[in-house]
Amino acid sequence: MQKDWIGNRFFLVSGNNRGDSPAEHDFYSTDPAAVEKLLQRETFNNKVWECACGVGHISEVLKLHGYDVRSSDIIDRGYQNTEIIDFLVSDNKENRDIITNPPYKYAQQFVEHAMDIAHDGFKMAMFLKLTFLEGKTRKKMFEQIPRIRCMCFPQECAAAKTV
User: Fold this and answer.
1) Cβ distance 161 to 138 under 8 Å?
2) Phi-psi group of 131: left, alpha or beta (phi > 0 → left; psi -120 to 50 → alpha; rest → beta)
3) What digits encode the pLDDT tens for the residues 51-94?
4) Per-residue pLDDT for 42 more than 70?
5) I want to staple 23 with a disulfide (CB 3.0 to 4.6 A). Which of 27, 29, 59, 87 is the partner?
């Protein structure tokens, strides 16, 4: 299978062992196959926010499935109609579900901020390394999250976490 995406840091169950240096702003693209796997197992509200859209791999799959997608990122990476927004200081006035692959060094902040701006009936899916589930520093955060479900897609070496 030919891949049209760059990198796979957030989907490798064992982490990024490629030996390369992190991209600017901790950016690594998302394999569209992982988004397809997520959508086979979970439904979302029609309006979705991809708040770390990068070059649009997640947004494009969501659009193909009929979702109304708001795409934003902290910098412009060339994806058409990207809103330049720092998610960590944003709001969710449009009451959208959030599906994203956050920069791993800010993953906990992305989860916590998404929960802070959540509305009733809100869903969130974060593509993260499995190591995100480890550590005492996240224990309090996980105790405050009302429902959590983890999904692993070993055929693609992909992991998706839904809250």
Assistant:
1) no
2) alpha
3) 999 999 999 999 999 999 999 999 998 999 999 999 999 998 88
4) yes
5) 27
Residue 163 has pLDDT above 70, yes or no: no
Rounded to whole angstroms, the Cα distance separating 44 from 109 reads 22
More confident of the two residues 131 and 38? 38
| Residues 34-162, CATH architecture | 3-Layer(aba) Sandwich (3.40)
Q: What is the DSSP letter of 64?
A: H
CA distances, 87 to each of 102, 139, 143 (Å): 10, 23, 23
Per DSSP (E only), the strands in the chain are: 47-50, 68-73, 83-84, 97-100, 124-126, 149-153, 158-162
Amino acid, single-letter form, for residue 52: A
Sequence spans of domains, the chain: 34-162
Alpha-carbon gap, residue 92 to 103, rounded angstroms: 19
Q: Are 96 and 123 in contact (CB under 8 A)?
A: no
